Amino acid sequence: MLNQISYFQKELADLVYRHTHMEGYQPTQIPCLGLSRYSTAHYSSLAGPSRGLYNPSLCIVVQGSKDIILGGERLKGGPSNYIVSSIDLPIIFEAMESSPEVPNLYCKIEFTPSLILELLSAEEFKVTGKRTSKRGVNVAELDVSMLDAVVRLVRLLDKPADIPFLAPLFTKEILYKTLQGDYGDSLRRIVTDGSPTIHIRNTIQHMTNNFQNPFRIEDLADVAKMSIPSFHRHFKEVTAMSPIQFQKQLRLQEARRLILSGSMNVADASFHVGYESHTQFSREYSRTFGFPPREDVKRLKLINDASVDI
């Protein structure tokens, strides 16, 4: 079994490396599939206020490592893991061990809610996953069956004519294995009528679209169709943060992106994302990212050679 896993891991690493022609995230001819290569230590944000509704996804750490920072928690992913994301959260990824000789390689597969619902609605579908979690992102153990299916999907990049016919089949197989695996329940909840996760997902989208504006907890609870105590409990179960912490992360990550891209200076970015006090912005930025804004951006540009995906 270990020999099989090692064989598939090597083949997948070769495929991802060959089909990534530059640093960072790259879409492919397969609509649901994206590949990433990083030859230096890097930081990246999964979510951003400018994005639309996020599709659930599976990310394979093909080579290297990926630390997931969610609120105050840090989850570690490596080549023996896959990452299941069910909801758009202000997550930061870090990978500090990388080099041109042994780059970090990732493979991301997105699933539409309609495809999830299609599989769950099948009369023959039986749930076998043992572990449950209400969190919007989880790290699970990768097995040879899942790895085999992912390799077959990525192999299609070498045979573009086969993509329209086989990619949907392989994607459905990978989703089936994800739903049946550890934390598959986190994907099932986002299409289950009446599930608190659906209501929290709607609230998250509302907050993401209006992150610059102040909000009242009563209004957010109304969007979620919950009482205030129930809303607080379910929101933290899914996001690992309070609503205020969540909004703060959205604001800080968007400000960081704007500053690093050169779109705005520090003062303009802090005002744009909703801060009225530059001092408060700098203090909260330093607390979140470990460095004041200007020092942080200078450091990231040096680390990433100005190619950070953030």
Automatic annotation (TrEMBL):
Keyword tags: DNA-binding, Transcription, Transcription regulation
Molecular function GO labels: DNA-binding transcription factor activity; sequence-specific DNA binding
Domain HTH araC/xylS-type: 201-299
SMART domains, per database record: HTH_ARAC
Any Pfam family hit: HTH_18
Entries under PROSITE patterns matching the protein: HTH_ARAC_FAMILY_1, HTH_ARAC_FAMILY_2
TM stretches of this protein: none
Protein name: Helix-turn-helix domain-containing protein
